[in-house]
C-alpha cells in the first residue's frame, strides 16, 4: 500500500470490512437520514 493512502489497490483485499458482501454506496442512506449535506466541493465531481 501507499504510505499516504493515495491508492488502495494493493491492500483493499485485506482491509475491506465485509469481503463476502457486495459493495455499497452509503451516500443514499445518509441522505435518507438527513445527515449528508453536499457542499459545493462535492458538486464538482
TrEMBL record:
GO molecular function, one term: metallopeptidase activity
GO cellular component terms given for this protein: membrane
Record key words, sorted: Disulfide bond, Glycoprotein, Signal
One Gene Ontology term from the biological process aspect of the record: proteolysis
Domain of life: Eukaryota
InterPro entries, alphabetized: Peptidase_M2 (IPR001548)
Family classification: Belongs to the peptidase M2 family.
Protein name: Uncharacterized protein
Amino acid at each position: 500500500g501507499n504510505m499516504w493512502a493515495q491508492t488502495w489497490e494493493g491492500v483493499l483485499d485485506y482491509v475491506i470490512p465485509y469481503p463476502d458482501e457486495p459493495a455499497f454506496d452509503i451516500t443514499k442512506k445518509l441522505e435518507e437520514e438527513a445527515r449528508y449535506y453536499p457542499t459545493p466541493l462535492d458538486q464538482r465531481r
